[in-house]
What we know:
Number of domains: 1
Shape: globular
Number of helices: 11
Order of helices and strands: HHHHHHHHHHH
Strand content: under 5%
Distance between the termini: 22 Å
Radius of gyration: 19 Å
Amino acid sequence: MHLWQVIVLAIVQGLTEFLPVSSTAHLILFPWLFHWPDPGLAFDVALHAGTLLAVALYFLREWIQLVLCGIGFHYPKRAGEHQVIYHRRLFWYLVIGTIPAAIVGWKFEHQIEALLRKPVPIAIALIVVGLLMWYGEYIGRLDRHIEQTSLGDSLYIGTAQALALFPGVSRSGITITAGLFRGMTRDAAAKFSFLLSTPVIAGAAAKELPKLYKMQKAGALGMPLSHVAISIAVSAIVGYVVIAFFLQYLQTRTLKIFIYYRILFGIVVLLLAFLPLGSVR
Length: 281
């Protein structure tokens, strides 16, 4: 794969990881649509390492507070007791919420990779989750802030995150939608979604990046490691900008534009897949 193709996919990853449109779907469908070689799941994970870096840096101060308060420290020292309790509770809610996705990924990763990294199931997932997002917008009360997060929210949204392992679902899309079903505001649901995604992406990157290195050493990667490093940097920069934009955007606007995009994109992919010109099904 050429460097410019790697950079394009890194930009796509940075743009779509935190928007509710499914980065994995776009990373699979872009090479399919433009007849590029499929870089495979390991390269996808490398790009996710870039967006992991973006979310970790964006929420660095918050993660420091969460971890230190979660393991029993009073941090920062000037913080009120209610702030410490809030961060301690939220930390353990995030830990609990991570468990469903970790279990599903451990048990079904290879089956998902073999069966569902194809245009038709991805397109169906894009449309179905788009409709769920519309329903979440329709019924959501939008009156609960992240400080009001409960154990039930953590389990509900964490279970929804497990579905994001299926290409086309979108981690942010399904978890934000779950947050709307729980009555959370859009920006609160998005912030909880981004925080919840951090451990899962970190775990996937820690598992897959060594495989990426071994593939490169064996000559099976199809690109030098310098291309991988550039892709991680590009996806990190773009992802950081998108997080800042999206959280600000959701304070005053709805998810409608992303709902329309998902449904339209899914329909286009289905048409291309079933037309004679569609090369993959």
